[in-house]
Amino acid sequence: MKKVPNDYYIDIFRKLVKAYNEGTLKEKYEELIEKAEDENAKKYIFAAMGLDYIKNASFEDIKKAMDMKKMKGKIVVKVGDCGIRCIDKDGFTSCQKACPFGAVDVLLEKNISEINDKCIDCGNCIAACDRGNLIDKIEFLPIVQYLESKEDVYAIIAPAYIGQFGENVTVGKLRKALKAIGFKDMIEVALFADILTLKEAVEFHKHVNKQKDFMITSCCCPMWVAMIKKLYSELVVHVAPSVSPMVACGRTIKKLHKNSKVVFIGPCVAKKAEAKENDLNDAVDFVLTFKELQEIFDILGINPENFCEDEGEHASRAGRIYAYTGGVSKAVYDTVNKLFPDRSIKVKAVQGNGVKECKDMLQKILDEKLEANFLEGMGCVGGCVGGPKSILSKDEGRKNVQEYGNQTDMITPIDNPCVYAVLKEIGINDIYELVDEDKAQIFERRF
Q: Which stretches of the chain score pLDDT less than 50?
């Protein structure tokens, strides 16, 4: 029986990574291209190498394309003609219903659906398409170019990673496993979630001083930020002027380690697009998902459980719990209360859990029907632990993150000496300097 496209795509990726490991990547590429049934099949091969399709490309052309400092093109790729077999009685396809931005057009006269320029590469359509006609590029083979050149390549990993690679895989074991692939080191992005929590707590104190004042967090979710920018632009002025923890981590590494490269690992397709945004593309070079990393571990015969511990910096509970809906709110709430215990206006938070709730919450703000002063949105139901490229279910992922958060006595970033050490290294000696545009430029983003 012929494989469905999703299986076909992952099978191609496995063959390419195995060939890379065996030193036969050129031969495998040429074999796959020769055996490809049509142009659509070739598009899968290129996407599995992190590239846009190049017609009649030699392996030398591929190497040049992978050598580009920042590869161009969209992350979400449409492969094949779907024939809109999944259209419902109201005339909507599965991918169209899944898209929060109206980025999928149904062309009845052509019997297909197409992605338009409203797409932000969130990946919702990929999960909705059960035929595998929508896929996201896998960026591992371009990363290999850096690893083979002996450059210092740092892996930075999202707070949602706890338990994703095995229940006995600790932070130290995962760090060791990533070093076995060739990474210089692994940094927990949760440490920079700590720093962004401090920044947003001070921003809240600065901007929310009357009963009708409110602040919208910009942390974590690129889908949430894109939703505000594209669909609720009148609310942009209320968005905290902060980058995501991923960007903060990448920029800090590159500031402290000149000429280094950074690879983010998480459960989110949209992070691949965030890393390429014009005002952010100095931070992270490439992005892998949890599922992609697990495939790489399997192909290379690496089992993180078998490694010894390799200790590094630690985050407080605040930074660790960013991985699920409500975590950012809890982190900022606790930090504001500890920094400013005498404030008359306390943090009154509300969360949007998934696209529908996010839209409802933002509309209520516009309609002046929401009594809250801190808004948190997560594009995926459950938060990052519910991301489309998580290995575990969102409930299991949340449970693991909660347990990890409870393992530390450091409740807020105020309690975390690692935070102060990092800030001092980049020239910030006081937490109030986090709202100084010049001093904290590395963490700043203007919308």
A: 1-3
